[in-house]
Design a protein that fits this description.
The chain is an alpha+beta fold. Helices cover 33% and strands 32% of the residues. A hairpin with a 4-residue loop joins strand 2 and strand 3 (59-62).
Length: 110
Amino acid sequence: GTPAARMPQVDGRAIKSRAARLRAAGTAAVARHLAAQHGRTVTVLTARPDMGRSEDFTAVRFDTPQSEGTLIRTTLTGHAAGQMHGHPLHFAQNTRIPTAPPARAARQRR
C-alpha cells in the first residue's frame, strides 16, 4: 500500500539496461580513481599480510607479506582488478596498531 506500489511499473528491459549503464559508470569511476592514485605515497592499514586499505579505503595489494594491523607508508605503483599495487617504504614511521582484547575478556575484567 505504499505510493511507490501504485506507480506504473518500469519495463524489465529498461531496468536491465539502466542497471548495466550504472555498473559501467561505476567501473569507469573506479578506474579513474585508481589511475589518479598511481605514484602517490599513502598510509595503508594492513588487514592481511598481502592486503590493506589506504586512508580513502582504496584496496592496496602487497607482493611481500606485511605485518597485520600495521600502518605502512606505501608508494602506489599500479592497479589491476579494482585494487592498487603498493610498494611499502620500510622505516620507523610504520606503526603497529594494538588490537582490542576479545569482548569476553573485556567483560570479565569489569
